[in-house]
Amino acid sequence: MKPSVMYRYQRLCTWCGPVCILLFLSGYWLIADLWPMPGPNVSATAIAELYRDNSMRIRAGSLMTMFAAGLLAPFAAVITVQMRRIEGRFSTLSYLQLSTGGLLVLG
Question: Are 67 and 81 in contact (CB under 8 A)?
């Protein structure tokens, strides 16, 4: 593969990080309207009413945040590639970064 194509893919994977943050926050704050969270003094019936009245918005916002979490995988991969380049032959920390980045997507 030509180096210019590799750098283009790495640049695309790098942009997955800011796009992930943008999608996650807009899904959580704007669509699901879950910010600020209800205080500890709110009754259980009020919480149930909040989720019952906004169920479609919460589902749409949750779907957007799940899609945003998928963008963490290419972002973690490109960070791993750069860490491996810096560390050289024995790149223990870059493999640790790759495994924890993969687990982050599952969370």
Answer: no
Instruction: Output the six-digit token pair for 101.
Output: 């980045």
Q: 5-28 burial string, b = 16+ CB within 10 Å, else e?
A: eeeeeeeebeebbeebeebbeebb
pLDDT, tens digit only, all 107 positions of the chain? 788 898 999 999 999 999 999 999 999 999 998 888 889 999 999 999 999 999 999 999 999 999 999 999 999 999 999 999 999 888 999 999 999 999 999 88
pTM for the structure as a whole: 0.84
Amino acid at 92: T
Give Cβ neighbours of residue 55 (< 8 Å, ≥ 6 apart).
none
As a whole number of angstroms, the distance between CA 94 and CA 107 comes to: 20
